[in-house]
Amino acid sequence: MTTIGIIGGGQLGRMLAQAGSTLGCRFLILDPSPSACAGGVGELLVGQYDDEARLVELSRRADVVTVEFENVPPDAARYLAALLPVHPSPSALATARDRLFEKEAFRRFHIPIADFRSVSSEEELRRAGEELGYPCFLKTRVFGYDGRGQWVLHGQEDITAAFDALGKVPLVCEARVPFEAEVSLVAARNPQGEFRFYPLNVNVHEKGVLRFSRPNAWPVTPDLQSRAEALMEKLLVGLDYVGVLAVELFVVNGELVANEMAPRVHNSGHHTIEGSRTSQFENQVRAILGLPLGDTTPLAPVAMVNLLGEVPDMGALLKMKDVHVHAYGKSASPGRKVGHVTVRADSEDELDAKLDAVATIVCPELAAKVPRRTKA
Ligand SMILES: Nc1ncnc2c1ncn2[C@@H]1O[C@H](COP(=O)(O)OP(=O)(O)O)[C@@H](O)[C@H]1O
Ligand SMILES: [Mg+2]
């Protein structure tokens, strides 16, 4: 029996454990919270991520360790990697964790990114604003997610407030990218160097949080897909990456500009559970165990809608044919990701209609923003 250690016990860990159970794996999940939702499907090890006694226990009882979030303390990852295999590697994790290192890696692999400046004082921020132009995005180098840890500066008058809010930690300031769409590519690579790509997702965010994801929606074309795959291949090989990697990209005038990477399964890949021959979660398990990767060809048109705050009336959703509700077993709290819905259809036209119906139930205020197969 193989035991997989996961650092982090959120919904990504939960779905990893669900997928890996099918392959006969057990899961030991390290999380500071005794109510972490992955504990519903695997054994929780409650402790801080840098608690040495917990890390030793994890290393003794697990055969391999992986992560479900990017902010794993680098020392903890290195400590574990001296004792057992850790995938992705501590160095890949350290790169993806810090926006500055991440941007330096994109540059090293000749992947286009927005112009940026490293910022550690109000004076540097003032200069960055002048050089990058307004609006620009100020972001903490680490610990930012779902739009947290960032501030949009519209002009010089915002500098002091932005720096007061974020300036106690190292920052980067980025030029605004006037994108026509946001997309993401999810891919997997195993230690043998085999890789698989999923179809490009079109992602719609609201206030920095992902709300909808739909593979192959406008403006994705086969050409954009192959350019995204070429870029991803450079990252996977360059980082000697093992596991699932996601890259968020902007589409600007038909060109791809990288935003950030996530060294893990990704929210925009949740629809692969019903929409792909092999889900991102199963491929993560296969990759870290050195098993052959599974086929990522789509089974049917799909899209995903996030459930924020609380799970709505499930009956209304489950009545609809081929609509699948994933509730993470988390308590309700405003803005919290508590579940998602996968909508699957027999045709893209049918998916358009069903997605409208689901959005009307889940988030009527955003129904006009659902990604479409063709330009609205
Ligand atoms: N430089 C930028 N130009 C335009 N929009 C941006 C820029 N940076 C971030 N955003 C917007 O904010 C969202 C969240 O930013 P991101 O860097 O992906 O942080 P997070 O880690 O919170 O996902 C992006 O998906 C995008 O909508
Ligand atoms: Mg993001």
What does it look like?
This protein has helices at residues 11-22, 52-61, 74-81, 90-97, 99-108, 122-132, 159-166, 222-238, 272-275, 280-288, 314-318, 348-362; strands at 3-7, 26-31, 43-46, 64-67, 116-119, 136-140, 150-153, 171-175, 181-189, 195-197, 201-206, 209-215, 243-252, 255-262, 302-308, 323-327, 337-344. The chain is an alpha+beta fold. Strands 9, 10, 11, 12, 13, 14, 15, 16 and 17 form a 9-stranded antiparallel β-sheet that branches. It starts with a strand and ends in a 14-residue tail after the last helix. The model has no long low-confidence stretch (mean pLDDT 97). The structure holds adenosine-5'-diphosphate and magnesium ion. Magnesium ion binds at residues 248, 260.
CATH topology of the largest domain: D-amino Acid Aminotransferase, Chain A, domain 1
Bound compounds: adenosine-5'-diphosphate, magnesium ion
Radius of gyration: 20 Å
- Share of β-strand residues: 25-35%
What features would you highlight for this structure?
376 residues, alpha+beta, Rossmann fold, Dna Ligase, domain 1, D-amino Acid Aminotransferase, Chain A, domain 1, 3 domains, nine-stranded antiparallel sheet, four-stranded parallel sheet, 12 helices, 17 strands, globular, binds adenosine-5'-diphosphate, binds magnesium ion
